[in-house]
Amino acid sequence: MINKKIGFIGSGNMAYSLIGGLISTGVNGQNIWISDPHSEKMTPIASQFGVNITNSNIELVQSVDIVILAVKPQQLAQVCTEIAADVINSRPLVISIAAGVLSKDIESWLNNQQNQSNPALVRCMPNTPALVQSGATALFANKYVSDEQKTLAESILRAAGLTIWLDNESDMDAVTALSGSGPAYFFLVIDAMEKAGVQLGLDEKTAHLLAIQTAFGASKMALESNDSPETLRKKVTSPGGTTEKAIAVLQDGKLEALFVKALESARDRSIELAQILGNDSAGSK
Ligand SMILES: NC(=O)c1ccc[n+]([C@@H]2O[C@H](COP(=O)([O-])OP(=O)(O)OC[C@H]3O[C@@H](n4cnc5c(N)ncnc54)[C@H](OP(=O)(O)O)[C@@H]3O)[C@@H](O)[C@H]2O)c1
């Protein structure tokens, strides 16, 4: 269990979800702080979990050991510039969950002109199922993060689901293409299966429930089985049977090649967006 003081800058959906996960693992609400300009967003979280709230990001940084940057990517440069002096003074572990913002940009915003803070920084890429504690989060630590801080960062993000460390930050673009954008691919498949079921004559509710439960059951089997997804697929594909017919149609349509193209396209956009986010915010230093 984490005994450090943890602060969230930004009290949106992700902060709420991570806080809920941390409390469920036994973290005391009194060890958690949130800051946000909107008191009306923080008050219900404080009532539910007994956490501390403030409108001042600086007060938050001065009160905690770990600062989690949970604002939108476009708001990150301004927040980092605001807290830079206090990060230099109190040297917390800084964790960014902002999608697509490079650690070199966060480091540069946290280093003010006079002082290099060399912040201990962990950059994460969670995905939306983190909101229901079933996320997949890739983490990258800069060279100032100690082993103890890595363990802490991992324990915090594990409250939102699976965590996995990357040795190279450049892999974050492939992660963004796979797990970051991945939930949308599955929603697309569920939706397509549901609509196909309706075309075959099922009523909407029946098609909807069957498509969702099938996706859930297949994921659960793939997670719990020692077999690869490919082997699991072959096991449910009897020669001459119905599944074989459907898979043949999908393979004729070059589904696998389509996924490679789709992920390459998402990865390339991730690289472009990181450059735009870094450049757009450069003026705020
Ligand atoms: N939601 C997801 O599933 C998901 C998945 C992966 C990664 N992420 C990342 O997680 C981060 C948070 O996402 P979210 O969905 O929780 O965002 P969100 O719901 O928009 O929450 C951000 C909160 O921060 C507040 N804020 C704005 N400027 C601030 C400042 N200067 N100081 C303190 N608070 C400030 C915002 O207020 P305003 O509304 O007034 O701006 C808002 O209440 C994002 O960077 C996103 O890329 C989210």
Structure description:
It contains 12 helices and 8 strands. It has 285 residues and is of the alpha/beta class. An 8-stranded mixed β-sheet has the order 3-2-1-4-5-6-7-8, with helices on both faces. β4 (66-69), α4 and β5 form a beta-alpha-beta unit. α3 runs parallel beside α4 (76-90), α7 (172-180) crosses α12 and α8 (182-199) packs across α9 (204-224). NADP nicotinamide-adenine-dinucleotide phosphate is lined by residues 9-15, 35-38, 41, 57, 70-73, 75, 78-79, 97-99, 126-128, 130-131.
Structural topology:
Elements: E1 6-9, H1 13-24, E2 32-35, H2 39-49, E3 52-54, H3 57-63, E4 66-69, H4 76-90, E5 93-96, H5 103-110, E6 120-125, E7 135-141, H6 147-158, E8 161-165, H7 172-180, H8 182-199, H9 204-224, H10 229-235, H11 242-252, H12 255-280
Parallel strand pairs: 1-2, 1-4, 2-3, 4-5, 5-6, 7-8
Antiparallel strand pairs: 6-7
